[in-house]
Amino acid sequence: MFSKSKIHEPGPKAAAETEKPKAETSVPSRPMGDFVPTARGKPAASVLSSDLTVVGNIKTTGDVQVEGVVEGDIRAHLLTVGETATIKGEIIADDVVINGRVVGRVRGLKVRLTSTARVEGDIIHKTIAIESGAHFEGSVQRQEDPLQGAGAPKLAPPAPAAPQDPAQGL
């Protein structure tokens, strides 16, 4: 009365498909000890510790936190100058937070001097905040785009003119 139907039985094509994923999952594509990042987010800020002295320029598109001494220019997205830090050079960054000492020009879209800041140099900014207690010697200039022209080389003083030989003019 009832006959066995072959409709619900897997055919040769379906059987091959079910076995294929099992074979792939049993063989790992890379060794188990490799690091696999889970997400690619914003990298952490680079930190220059308080016992570090850098002589030379620093350039990055990321964030930098300086706790030590830098003798050179710094270009970054966000620069945080720690309370123990001293920077002797030009700072160019989108955001600048100064808690320590800076001797040189500061260029930034947003510049903030905290109560522990000590700045000797000009500040060119779009927005600025200076907390009570901060020490600042220099001029402040607001520009719509303070980073514009920041990559231009600094002008050298003019060289003295060489004396001309009167015999050459004849």
Automatic annotation (TrEMBL):
InterPro entries: BacA/B. It comes from the Bacteria. It comes from Rhodobacter xanthinilyticus. This is Cell shape determination protein CcmA. Belongs to the bactofilin family. Residues 1-23 have a biased composition (Basic and acidic residues). Residues 1-35, 138-170 are annotated as: Disordered. Signal peptide: none annotated.
